[in-house]
Specification:
The protein is built from nine helices and 14 strands. By secondary structure, the protein is α/β, with parallel strands linked by helices. The chain folds into two domains: about 140 residues, Rossmann fold (3-Layer(aba) Sandwich); about 150 residues, Dihydrodipicolinate Reductase, domain 2. It starts with a strand and ends in a 10-residue tail after the last helix.
Length: about 325
């Protein structure tokens, strides 16, 4: 196919961005959007020359929609995603893939054994800075890695009301630890709590990997200034990535070098990748299993924080 026809379900903050990108990419066409708020759905559709609905079933009936992007509240991800898969649509579902492991497993199982691709929306996997940092690690520039420390802090995004900071924010970095180290954490220890929200609004998480490698994630909705960084410490050098600017600073025994590259929008790279994989008939780099696994780790984090003990994350594999 020359272009992949997309429908976007949910036109809140992320849904508007998905709609914009699908309207801009050369290999995608934004066919229709859906939202229970008719004013919001109409506004997004009119801006990009698409159709609009308030009933997702009507959108899913369209034969010219090849794939669906699910940007609804987390508690509805499973029902909307399973409906899309049952209608034969490829699926991109924003993180977390679902609000609980059982629902996430249903999406994962529904995606297996069919010619349909499911991608979980871990946008940081497509951050150009992150990919360059992973290359530095694999090329041995940092030497043997000892620690990866992710910091994702800032004020509460008021649009988030059905999950806490672990499943909304820390989940990005928990997924990235698996991606950077190419393995699953052996054990997890965490502290988390709430200073002003219904769900937890701060978390400090330690992940033990094989050998000497450790991952540490700090996430909160409390800090006045937004910070999105990843520091990787190796025996030969330390690298610090700013996810926002996409710059990497590498410091070794002799020099400190700031590696600057042209900034590129991670969301556009993510959605272009998914569309291309549909066209090629190949599984995307980030799958339903990645979404399920990240959620299993999040659940282990919350149980560890509540019990005060280290846990081995539950696994569906």
């Amino acid at each position: 196919m020359d272009k992949v026809g997309f429908g976007v379900i949910g036109t809140g903050f992320w849904g508007r961005n998905h709609s914009r990108v699908f309207a801009e990419l050369p290999n995608t066409q934004l066919v229709a959007v859906c939202d229970i708020d008719s004013t919001r759905a109409r506004e997004v559709a009119d801006r990009h020359g698409a159709e609009w609905y308030t009933d997702s079933e009507r959108l899913l009936e369209r034969a010219d929609i090849d794939a669906v992007s699910v940007c609804t509240p987390t508690t509805t991800h499973a029902s909307v995603s399973l409906a899309a898969l049952s209608r034969g649509k490829h699926l991109l579902v924003e993180k977390p893939i679902a609000d609980n492991i059982e629902s996430a497993r249903k999406i994962y199982e529904a995606s297996r054994g069919h010619d349909l691709f499911v991608m979980t929306g871990f946008i940081e996997r497509f951050n150009p800075g992150l990919r360059r940092l992973k290359n530095l690690i694999e090329q041995g520039v940092l030497g043997e890695v000892v620690l990866a420390f992710a910091r994702r802090v800032g004020r509460w995004p008021e649009r988030i009301g059905d999950v806490g900071v672990v499943k909304d924010s820390a989940i990005h970095d928990l997924d990235l630890m698996r991606y950077l180290f190419n393995e699953e954490p052996l054990s997890i220890y965490a502290r988390a709590g709430s200073l002003g929200h219904k769900y937890e609004d701060y978390a400090e998480i330690m992940l033990k990997f094989s050998g000497i490698r450790t991952g540490f994630v700090e996430a909160n909705w409390l800090t006045p200034r937004k910070v999105r960084t990843l520091t990787v410490t190796g025996k030969e050098a330390i690298a610090v990535l700013d996810f926002i600017t996409q710059e990497i600073v590498v410091e070794n025994a002799n020099e400190t070098v700031t590696k600057k590259h042209e900034w590129a929008e991670p969301l556009k790279a993510e959605l272009a990748h998914f569309a291309s994989r549909i066209q090629e008939g190949k599984e995307p780099d980030v799958t339903a299993y990645d979404g399920l696994r990240a959620l299993e780790i999040c659940e282990a984090v919350l149980v560890s924080a509540q019990s005060g003990t280290a846990l081995v994350p539950r696994s569906s594999s």
